[in-house]
């Protein structure tokens, strides 16, 4: 059985965190540990996490710590204390299949694969964002093909994003320096560029389900425009610090 540490960065996730933790209860086999790294939430996130720990069978495997409200720093902090051979970075509004641990173990059993992620389907309370979900799938391929073609063909580089539930070996994560804490956005894409020096990055043919809250706030047309603009400008070398102005936090 694969030893997988699931790391969840949270910031004002009261709406989703309980459902996400409930979904992790049915993982078969279970994760070795679930590390929640909170970024100074101002809502009921921490209360709901503690209440969940007190009332469920996962209490022995959940660790909850706090750090500054920077997702890169939160994920790095989780990786720092993780004890599993494999790391899985899960957003608090994303639901994974019950055989998540088996999928990660089988994928990383191949020594030529350094990391991977899933196909993300974006869903709301009453609808599925099929168009944006398709675009999110395609940009995993066209972004490296357009901007890093040599890595796309020689290293099978795929540019994965947080909603796609990135996973990798803990040692490879440490070797490549983890997430760049200077990046306010695009930290996962930057991480993929460095991780691929240790092997291929694979998008496995399985689905995870993520909240559409950002699209619901912006509208589908605006969301697609922003995603395209940020992706292309980042690919051409525009700094993530400057691009962050177009990508507000939405809870």
Automatic annotation (TrEMBL):
GO molecular function, one term: glycosyltransferase activity
Matching Pfam families: Glycos_transf_2
Superkingdom classification of source: Bacteria
GO cellular component: plasma membrane
Primary localisation category: membrane
Keyword annotations of the record: Cell membrane, Glycosyltransferase, Membrane, Transferase, Transmembrane, Transmembrane helix
Domain Glycosyltransferase 2-like: 5-153
Cellular compartment(s): Cell membrane
Keyword NADP among UniProt keywords: no
Pathways involved: Carotenoid biosynthesis; staphyloxanthin biosynthesis; staphyloxanthin from farnesyl diphosphate: step 4/5
Protein family membership: Belongs to the glycosyltransferase 2 family. CrtQ subfamily.
Function description: Catalyzes the glycosylation of 4,4'-diaponeurosporenoate, i.e. the esterification of glucose at the C1'' position with the carboxyl group of 4,4'-diaponeurosporenic acid, to form glycosyl-4,4'-diaponeurosporenoate. This is a step in the biosynthesis of staphyloxanthin, an orange pigment present in most staphylococci strains.
NCBIfam families assigned: glyco_like_mftF (TIGR04283)
Family matches, as PANTHER family: GLYCOSYLTRANSFERASE, GLYCOSYLTRANSFERASE 2-LIKE DOMAIN-CONTAINING PROTEIN
Designated name of the protein: 4,4'-diaponeurosporenoate glycosyltransferase
Protein's organism: Euhalothece natronophila Z-M001
Organism ancestry: Bacteria, Bacillati, Cyanobacteriota, Cyanophyceae, Oscillatoriophycideae
């Amino acid at each position: 059985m694969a030893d997988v540490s699931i790391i969840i960065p949270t910031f004002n996730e009261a709406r989703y965190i309980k459902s996400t933790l409930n979904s992790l209860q049915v993982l078969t086999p279970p994760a070795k540990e679930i590390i929640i790294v909170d970024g100074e939430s101002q809502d009921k996130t921490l209360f709901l996490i503690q209440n969940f720990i007190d009332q469920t069978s996962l209490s022995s495997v959940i660790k909850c710590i706090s750090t500054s409200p920077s997702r890169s720093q939160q994920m790095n902090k989780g990786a720092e204390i993780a004890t599993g051979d494999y790391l899985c970075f899960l957003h608090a509004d994303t639901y994974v299949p019950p055989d998540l641990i088996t999928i990660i173990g089988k994928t990383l059993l191949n020594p030529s694969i350094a990391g991977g992620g899933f196909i993300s389907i974006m869903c709301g309370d009453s609808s599925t964002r099929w168009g944006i979900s398709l675009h999110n799938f395609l940009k995993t391929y066209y972004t490296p093909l357009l901007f890093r073609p040599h890595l796309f063909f020689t290293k099978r580089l795929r540019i994965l994003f947080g909603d796609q539930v990135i996973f990798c070996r803990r040692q490879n994560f440490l070797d490549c320096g983890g997430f760049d804490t200077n990046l306010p956005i695009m930290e996962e894409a930057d991480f993929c560029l460095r991780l691929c020096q240790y092997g291929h990055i694979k998008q496995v043919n399985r689905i995870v389900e993520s909240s559409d809250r950002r699209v619901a706030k912006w509208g589908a047309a605006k969301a697609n425009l922003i995603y395209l603009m940020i992706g292309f400008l980042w690919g051409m070398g525009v700094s993530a610090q400057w691009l962050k102005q177009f990508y507000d936090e939405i809870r």
